[in-house]
Amino acid sequence: MKPRRSLIGIAAAASLLGAACTSVGPDYERPLLGLPAAYPDGAAAAGGKQALESAAVTAEWWKVYGDARLDELVASALARNADIRVAVARIEETDANLREAGAAFLPEINLGSTGSRQRFSTTQATPAFSGVPIIRNNVRLALNTAFEIDFWGKLRRTLEAARALALSSRYAKDVVTLSLAGLTTQAYFSIRSLDEQIAFTRSTLDSRDSALDLVRRRVAGGIASDLELSQAQSARAEVSLQLRELQRQRSLLEHQLATLTGTLDLGVAPGNLPGLPVPPQPPAGLPSQLIERRPDIQLAEQQLVAANAQIGIARAAMFPSVSLTGLLGDESRALSTLLNSGSRIWSLGFGVTLPIFDWGRLASRSDAATARAQQLVAGYQKSVETAFREVADALSNAAAGRETEDDLQTRLQAARTTSRLALLRYQSGYSPFLEVLDAQRSLNDAGLALVRNHQSRLAASVDLMKALGGGWTR
After folding, report:
1. Is residue 198 domain-shared with residue 230, that is, in the same domain?
2. C-alpha Rg value of the chain to the nearest Å
């Protein structure tokens, strides 16, 4: 029983020794970047007092828009998109690597068996012992183990790196999820915007048809020229071409949305863009620390943690490695006596390996690990600075879109009045038909500009949600 206890004791002693050892290499510290406490006042003030009374946005930020069809499309994209499946598989891979790194702290015990049959020479210089058979069998069944004591923290740094990579794979999936939800939402809003532009263009086309009929009647009555008829026909064809282009763009966006949602035969029925609410803006003085929860920022930091741990792994390889070995089993000349008490064999041992001359190979690996970590520090800084800029840009765009909408509404109302009055003046003979065409073009441009601004506001709100990592809390 004593050898058996000794073999079991190797595992316990190795674990205790490993726990008592130190870890070489630098411990991770988050880089200090010195970001402002809040975003620029001009951008942050976009929320106003009304934002302070608004509800907080949840992680499923797309549901704020209150569109059931949009909710269905995003849910389909998150469930069926190929990029999501790839991200999930990567999580499973890194989880397996993490379990493997954790298992390295415990000795590996293997069961081995061997069998051989050997004939000895009777004419050799040193004859065989008297009474020993010329032909012998040998059977062995034994447990064996070998374990490297983690004196310098190489295994602990390996586990630290594996844990960081496992976390980074989850953040990578969150990055894909956030990006995919944003692309789906933007494509849906673009389709809705085109629906509204198509509807307005059809209304414009109807007015051009009416104007063309009016000019034809006046030409037939001898009070209008063929020039005016040609102008009316050209204006009508221009709007018809514009309508076909908008319809083409809608088809392309519908195809894109089908690919994003994994539903290749997707069809989106025409809808109403102005009926979609613009989500509440965040309060003024939004803290810049909110960007730290962005999955791409967290991903960059976990990659930095893993690279920092790799420095410790590289440095630990430059120190002596101590390993323990053990064997416990039975060996006999016959299988029938293999488990007899006299067949018992065991051994305990240890070994030390110290690199002496490697011509700088291990030091070079340590320097390379340090350089990789420095690269990721710069990458982390760039990710944070980019995130700060994206939030500030989204806040500015949201504020500009809201302030512009009032002017666009005024422009549209004025263009409608101008178009109506120009047509009356033309019918009364006070102005040429070119004035009617100019007024109708202005009305068409004003209507489309208002719709596109509404889409821009929605796009800015989506950009803000993405820039903040999926919304904010009060």
Report:
1. yes
2. 38
For residue range 282-301, list pLDDT tens digits in order.
Answer: 666 677 777 777 888 989 99
Q: Which residues pair with 332 in a beta bridge?
A: 139
- Rounded Cα–Cα distance for residues 352 and 325 (Å): 11
Judgement on whether residues 72 and 11 belong to the same structural domain of the protein? no
Token reading at 245 = 């282009």
- Enclosing domain of residue 339: 1-22+109-149+323-353
| Residue 472 maps to a domain | no
Distance CA 74, CA 62 (A): 8
| Whether residues 123 and 63 fall in one domain | no
pLDDT at 464: 87
Instruction: Say how many domains are in the chain.
Output: 2
SS3 content of the chain, % helix, strand, coil (to 5): 65, 10, 25
Exposure letters 46-71 (e unless 16+ CB within 10 A, then b): bbeeebeebeebeeebbebbebeebe
Average pLDDT of the residues in 359-380: 90
| Residues 1 and 145 reside in one and the same domain | yes
Dihedral sign of CA atoms 87, 90, 94, 100 in order: positive
Whether 208 and 175 map to the same domain: the answer is: yes
Which of 413, 144, 174, 186 lies closest to 298, judged by CA?
Answer: 174
Residue 319 carries which side chain, given as an amino acid letter? F
Q: Residue 390 domain-assigned?
A: yes
Residues 118 and 11 in one domain: yes
Shared-domain flag, residues 36 and 132 = no
Sheet bearing 135-149, strands edge to edge: 108-119, 135-149, 321-332, 344-353
Q: What is the pLDDT of residues 83-140, one digit of tens each?
A: 888 888 888 888 898 888 888 877 888 888 888 888 777 776 555 555 667 787 888 8
Which has the closest alpha carbon to 458: 252, 177, 200, 187?
A: 187
